[in-house]
Each structure stands twice: as C-alpha cells, then as structure tokens.
Amino acid sequence: MADLGNEASFLPGVLAAKAAGAAAGAGVSLIYLLPKSRREAASRFFTGLCCGLIFGGPVGLWLAEQMEIAHRLSGTEIMLTGSAAASLSAWWVLGALVRVAARYGRRVG
Asked: Which tens digits make up the pLDDT trace of 53-103?
C-alpha cells in the first residue's frame, strides 16, 4: 500500500499537477452539463476543484492499480489523472445524490 502522507505529495510539480488536473476536471464537468447561472457555475467549479485537490492522490492510485499501469506512470501523472477524475466525477455524484434526496426526501401530507 502506498504511503500518501509523505513529503513528496507537497513538491511543487506534484502540487501543480494536482491543481491542473482538478481545474481541468472541473472545467470539463461544466462543459458536459451547462450551468443555469453564474452562481451555479462557480459552485460547481469550486466543488470540483476542492474534490480534485483533496481526493486526487487516492483516486489516481486506485485508477492506476485497477488498470494495472501503476508501474508505467510517474507520481505526477498519477496525481494529474486522479485529480481530473475526482474533480470530474464530484459534481456528477453530488447531482445524483440531490436527485435521490429530492425523490425520496419529500414530505407526505
């Protein structure tokens, strides 16, 4: 199992890869489903950016291990890919949860 708590995750190159991946994933999520307002766009972008920065490392490692390509990728590539994937999927997962809550969370009567 990888050690995610080391100093290497704070190197400028890895941190820049995390930020670039998170921004790219958030941008793509806005393109796929256009927001209704500027406020929604800002909220979605910020949510994607935060999730990409926070969960980029674990998601990147999980994806690389699932595809069995971890030995071929550098740490920067894993961070970039993981941040983009986490950022892109963040809004879609939150949107699904909102729809489920709206459907089953209605008050009767």
From this structure: 999 999 999 999 999 999 999 888 999 999 999 999 987 787 777 778 878
- pTM for the model: 0.76
User: Tokens 């910020």 correspond to what residue?
Assistant: 46
Question: Can you say whether residue 40 is alpha, beta or left, with left for phi > 0 and alpha for psi between -120 and 50 degrees?
Answer: alpha
From residue 35, how far is each of 10, 31, 49, 103, 109 by CA, in Å? 33, 9, 16, 21, 33
Neighbours of 4 (CB within 10 A): 10
3-state secondary structure at position 7: helix
Domain ranges for the chain, please list them: 10-104
Identity (one letter) of the amino acid at 107? Answer: R
